[in-house]
């Protein structure tokens, strides 16, 4: 594959939140997850768990749980001062996307949820113990928390997953908002084992609407040190 082809693929992927009725074939989703599992990941421990959900009632239950928890949060007095997330404005001359006609979550034809297994790392345990009395170990413990190899590993798989889905002609969006709203409910709906945290969900479907996006210039986000 030429770099120009890869560039086209990468730049053509958008977060899709608008759905057609067309069902998504299970085999495609399984293939996408299989390819995602070839992403680099810490110690090749492959601590990810993917859940492909095609059952409409479960997709709706997940969407409803997130909406209910959000509604509850909106009733907090503290929320009166909260302006909410405002997406960056589109570049000049580009139309902002219309509001979705269907719920990006509850009406998604399919959904992939991504879990991260919790595993006890003997090295981490030892450092945590030593950090109680050793400043250097305490610093190391803090750095290790900032690095969060567990989440980085699973995120690496999600990045691959989105690109493969896009190559397959499917729309998808990486979402953590609904998980922060209703992680417990969602894990119950899916019967997720207690040693797994669902960290993201990806609604998937065919879509005729592709929004625009933009990125900062590479020179604004990258320093070449030589
Ligand atoms: C960690 C992470 C969390 C995200 N959470 C949400 C979310 O909760 N809801 C949502 O609509 N989009 C979510 N997104 C999608 C981003 O908003 C989107 O990738 C970004 O605006 C750039 O748009 P693009 O993917 O079309 O290029 C998330 C993306 C990432 C990587």
Characteristics of this structure?
226 residues, alpha+beta, NADH Oxidase, globular
Summary, kept brief:
The protein has about 230 residues and is α+β, with helices and mostly antiparallel strands. About 45% of the residues lie in helices and about 10% in strands.
Any overview of this molecule?
The structure is a single chain. By secondary structure, the chain is α+β, with helices and mostly antiparallel strands. The chain has one domain (about 15-75, about 105-220): NADH Oxidase, CATH 3.40.109.10. Helix content is about 45%, strand content about 10%. The chain contains eight helices and four strands; from the N terminus they run ααβαβαααβαβα. The protein has helices at about 5-10, 25-35, 55-75, 120-130, 135-145, 150-165, 175-190, 220; strands at about 50-55, 110-115, 170, 195-205. The chain has a four-stranded antiparallel sheet with strand order 1-2-4-3, with helices on both faces. Helix 3 packs across helix 7 and helix 4 (about 120-130) packs across helix 5. The longest helix has 19 residues, at about 55-75. It is globular. The two termini are about 30 Å apart. Flavin mononucleotide binds near residues 174, 177 and 213.
């Amino acid at each position: 594959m030429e770099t120009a082809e890869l560039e086209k693929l990468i730049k053509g992927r958008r977060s899709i939140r608008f759905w057609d009725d067309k069902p998504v074939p299970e085999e495609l989703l399984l293939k996408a997850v299989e390819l995602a599992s070839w992403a680099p990941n810490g110690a090749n421990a492959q601590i990810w768990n993917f859940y492909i959900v095609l059952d409409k009632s479960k997709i709706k239950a997940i969407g409803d749980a997130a909406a209910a928890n959000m509604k509850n949060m909106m009733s907090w007095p503290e929320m009166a001062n909260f302006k909410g997330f405002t997406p960056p404005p589109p570049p000049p001359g580009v139309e902002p996307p219309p509001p979705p006609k269907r719920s990006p979550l509850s009406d998604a034809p399919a959904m992939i949820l991504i879990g991260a297994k919790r595993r006890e790392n003997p090295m981490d345990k030892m450092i945590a113990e030593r950090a109680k009395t050793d400043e250097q170990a305490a610093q190391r413990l803090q750095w290790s928390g900032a690095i969060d190899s567990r989440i980085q590993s699973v995120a690496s798989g999600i990045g691959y997953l989105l690109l493969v889905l896009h190559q397959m002609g499917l729309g998808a969006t990486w979402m953590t908002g609904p998980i922060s709203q209703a992680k417990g409910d969602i894990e119950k709906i899916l019967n997720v084992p207690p040693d797994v945290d669902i960290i993201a969900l990806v609604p998937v479907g065919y879509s005729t609407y592709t929004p625009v996006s933009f990125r900062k210039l590479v020179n604004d986000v990258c320093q070449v040190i030589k």
